[in-house]
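SAMPLE LOG
Freezer: B-3
Tube label: C17
Construct: single chain, 285 aa
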Amino acid sequence: MKKVVAMMLSLVMALGLLAGCGQKDAGTAGGTKTIESLKIAFSPYADADQITTATEPLEALLKAKLLEKGYDVQRIDMTVGTSYTAVGEALSAGSADIGFISGGNYVLFSDDCDVLLTALRYDINKDSTNPADWNDGTIEENTQDMTTYYRSIILAGPSAKGQELLAKVNAGEELTWDDLNSATWSVLAPTSASGYIYPSLWLQEHYGKTIADLDHVVQSDSHSTSLARLATGQADVMVSYGHIRIKNAPIWQEKLGGTAPMVEQTGIIGVTEGIYNDMIAYSKT
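STRUCTURE (predicted):
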């Protein structure tokens, strides 16, 4: 909820700037412009009642900021979508003007909406799209730099097949589709940005295939479940966010089933393009 409120306050500031960007305020260019309604849709980060309660006091602040710029908004309609996809569909149809959505949702609806603001997160010290650059014998580390995106990685585990694929990558060899298709993959639900959508886009770009085309896929209910399957050899590779090892290296052996330090048993064999952090998007309609 703190994230939602912080992004809402950022929206107040950004809309004030957006309204006055590149033009005189409406009030000095022919009088105040009346806008009947501004429709804002939230992805279901929490229960609808919680989001409504947390953001309701900000409606007056948003109206006041826009009025300063000469826009008299009569009504601000805030709704919480039944799903992340529902908010993307609302932006696409124009039934929402502004939406709080995830980076994964954005890629599905980018033809019909665009980014106004993105949340920031601490960056990590590895950002290359060449997977071999990640395999220097050290676990990734957080930095003090802030970034608007993160990457998804394809992580090979300690199984014989996982180590075979990792050895090829570290030797500078290109993996073939047959190489990847011979492995067992642990993925998340198709709505997950780092656990499905972006790895599928990576496969499409490199091989003209997607996760749906792989012969051996296991869907996990969480990144932690995927890691446990990787550690115990139930999966050869998994897909997840790029900082997954930072969080889980300390528990790789004692909780996840690894038999040696995580940095020794895992390595990256694929890196996707950047995934926007949670964002505030606006409808092109």
